[in-house]
Amino acid sequence: MKCAIIGHGKMGREIERILAERGHSVELIIDEENASELTAENLRGIDVAFEFTTPDTALGNVRTVLEAGGRVVCGTTGWLAHLSDMERLAEERGGALFYASNFSIGVNMMFRLNRRLAELMNPHSEYDVRIEETHHMWKKDAPSGTAITLAEGIIENLDRKSEWVNSTPERGDQLEIESFREGMVVGIHTITYTAPDDFIQLKHSIINRRALALGAVVAGEYLRDKSGVHTMDNLL
Predict the structure, then answer these.
(1) CATH assignment of 2-103+210-235, given 3.40.50.1000, 3.40.50.300, 3.40.50.720, 3.30.260.10?
(2) Catalytic hit among 8, 135, 189, 204
(3) Sheet of strand 199-206, all strands in order from the earlier edge strand to the far edge
C-alpha cells in the first residue's frame, strides 16, 4: 500500500513506523513546512492518505484529497460541523473517507457498551450520568471528539433529554462533560451513572499512541480498495 501522511507530529510518526512494520511504503509526508505540496499531482498513485493534524487545517486537507478522488483516513477532531459536506464530496468524486473520533479498538468497543448501557439505564431515573475526559495539555479541542461521540450515544439511547445540563459543542445536544488537560495523558474517558446509594462506571484508558496509530493503519488497509464513506462500525 502506497501512503501519504498529512501531519508529521507524534501520531504521524507513529503511523509511519507501523506502516513500515506492516510492509507499506510512505510516498508523501506533508507537514507545516511543506503544506503547499499537498496537491492532486502529488497524490497521484497514493492508495491512502492519513490525516492527523489540527482542527484548523483538517478540513482543507481532507477536501484536497477527496477532490483528487483519493482515499483519506482522518482522525483529527474539532471540525465535525463540516463532516457531512466531506461525506458528500467523497461520494461525488468517487473517493473514500474514513473518519473516526478515536481509532483505538478498545474505545470503539466502549462506544458500543456505552450505547447498550444507556438503553439498560432507561427505567432507572435515579441515576445521573456524566462524562469525564482527560488528554495531554496540547490537545486543542475540548471536549474531545471521543467524549462527544460518547455523549451522542447516551443521548440517542437514554430518554432524558430534558435533564441534560451543559451543551456539547458542534451538535447542540446537552449532557455534562468535564474536560481536563494535563501532562502527557494520551486519553482517558469515563462515564459514570450515580445514584444516592451506588454508582456504575465505564472507563477506558489509552496507555500509548500506538493503540490509536495501529487502528488508523488497519482502517487504511480496509479502505485501500473502497469508495464512499466508512466508519469504525464498518471496520469492526
Answers:
(1) 3.40.50.720
(2) 135
(3) 177-181, 128-135, 187-194, 199-206
Is the model more confident about 98 or about 140?
98
| pLDDT, tens digit (0-9, with 9 covering 90-100), for 198-210 | 999 999 998 888 9
Helix H or strand E segment including 228: strand 228-230
Active-site residue, from 10, 82, 139, 226: 139
For 113-148, the pLDDT digits (tens) are 999 999 999 999 899 999 999 998 888 778 888 898
- Specify whether 139 is catalytic: yes
In one-letter notation, the amino acid at residue 147 is A
CATH 1.10.10.60 fits 105-206, yes or no: no
Residue 226 designated active-site: no
Residue 212 vs residues 16, 103, 116, 171: alpha-carbon distances, Å: 13, 5, 23, 24
